[in-house]
Amino acid sequence: MPDTPAVILPHARGAVAVESMSLADPGRGEVLVRMEACGICHSDLFVAGLERLPLAPLVLGHEGIATVETTGPDVTAWKPGDRVGMTFLATTCGVCDLCRSGRERFCPKQTNFGFSRHGALARYAVVPAAALVRVPGDLPAATLAPLCCAGWTAQGALREAGLERGRKAAIFGFGGLGHLALQLALQRGLRAAVVDLSQEKLEAARDAGAEFTAPAENAGRAIQKEFGGVDAAIVLTPSSGAIQQAFRALSRTGTLVLVGIWTTQYELPLIDTVLKGVTVRGSYLGTHQDLEEVFALARGGILLPHVHTHELEETPAILDRMSRGEVQGRAVVGF
To answer: What global pTM score does this model have?
Structure first.
């Protein structure tokens, strides 16, 4: 196998760089894929900031669209030329109660691309065949790539919110996930509010159909006073301050859906949680049906990521910009 350029995190909290790495031939149950595109996710930034890593050096990336090049022994579901997608979920045990009940994303023995297995920010990758998903063949790779994580995660969060048409939802954070969550909320017939630190992003949210927008500071009070509170608040940022404002934005019996991850801690008022009947839910990825629905909405022109395409060599700089909240929509590397 020839060497392949890849975005590599050399060690925990190391400097991300584009370097050449060698690949072995695909083994039993594995396939070699040639990447078409890979989105850059906030989770890549999270992994790069961890104090410990399960694998290092590590190839980052998990929002991958690729074409199968060759297959290893015992691979029957895929053949050369097939178009496939990679998500954050790489492998699971397949036998625990969670796996057997369609909740394999919570499997305690799971492995993850760009975290405990080499990821998709490389020209070529060798991956478990069972981890791949079928993707539409008639959409650009740059459009499909963000759907494999950002779109899937946003759809899962909206489902966790459990809102019927006409109810109100607030989306905290209008970045790569937020702009897709807004489209999905509107597609479900929800009245949507958007909160962000950036006035530019709030303007983009209004242009995209948000009924109400508010700057991050005192957003909970503004939503209560000017929007009448919301039935669900979906927090896509890991900011503890955003979580507190989202809680304040909830109407009685509302649902707080937490999506963004970081190592920060947060506090919620116990009295209000109990007396107002607030539900707090964590939302991680989504179901297989969620992912299928996301692809179907994209094919129907209903869910369209706002993407900026980049060269692989630009990835370290993009991660720096992402850490400062300067990336609108989704940054995608094209190959």
So the answer is: 0.95
